[in-house]
TrEMBL record:
GO molecular function: succinyldiaminopimelate transaminase activity
Its EC number(s): 2.6.1.17
CDD domains: AAT_like (cd00609)
Name of the gene this protein is made from: dapC
Protein's name according to its UniProt entry: Succinyldiaminopimelate transaminase
Amino acid sequence: MNPLLAKLQPYPFERLRQLFAGVTPNPDFAPISLGIGEPKHPTPAFIQDALAAGMGALATYPATAGDLPLRQSFTGWLERRYGLALDPATQVLPVNGSREALFALAQTVVDASRTPAPVVLSPNPFYQIYEGAALLSGAEPYYVPSVPARNFAVDWDSVPDAIWARTQLVFVCSPGNPTGAVMPIGEWEKLFALSDRHGFVIAADECYSEIYFRDEPPLGGLEAAARLGRSDFRNLIALTSLSKRSNVPGLRSGFVAGDAAIIKSFLLYRTYHGSAMSGTVAAASIAAWNDELHVVDNRAQYRSKFAAVTPLLEPVLDVRLPDASFYLWAGIPPAWQGDDAAFARALYAQYNVTVLPGSYLAREVGGANPGRGRIRMALVADTAECTEAAKRIVNFIQN
């Protein structure tokens, strides 16, 4: 067996199952889960109709690069959303969800034969696929902490020069999971300068870009590059998905866009990897990318939930409205002495509400885990259920 598999850590939700093992939650309360970031809003009917209408494509092998109308739906959306003009033939590719693409991109980019061992940078806390992708590519993960005092901005300045010199890939998550923070253009400019100096690729994970709470939409990586005069998107790949934007996590549909040279190599990898998007899924995807009304409605539903829940929790938790995403990244009360796992277990036992311990989403570096003492709450259920969960959390803390 591949010895690198032994380096993989249990996924956060497996750790959560182990944490709750042997616990019988209070039967007086119906279960409410804020633990998993799985969209619960209904899939729009027109997307389901497009999927059904595209069933004829099941009789045909799909092209790995995707047909032109699919790629044009990507570039059309990028133009409407960010004001960008990308070539549908060379600068975009369909992927089977951003998770699959994040993993595969690392396998394409990393040259494990180099010595000393290559490094892949990840924010800390982070989406665990970044770590797994780095390890299975033969690279060494390096965890860069987020700073609460700076709106959870990633502290790129803390990375030593010796690490930058070995870095081949940097994962950026903006809006962030779990923090919801959006990276400003000054941070992008810093990363681009470092990429130019050291030659590493930047993978911009932007699957939460359409769920935001400010008047101005979140800045995207490609958009930042264009504003800074980097119209070739050198060493930059942005990844996005329909899962959160359009409430179709089971469709497994997204796309990557950016540097044409990297896209070319990524297409070669994917041709052998066998990861072409079904024509049936492509038909539904085109319909979704070409419509914005359902996205506006989806965003309004999340705004309503956060407006109802955040004020309830602010008096008892260290929490505030994030820039974007559907997570609340909350600090637990001092009485718990930073034991977020014990907090989550007791909350589940007493009030049947599931939250994810923040330490499960981060790694300890230098004796500190930046997720310790925090919990992640995914406000994916309807407003009434999320509000009920918030009220239970308030009662749990006060009692």
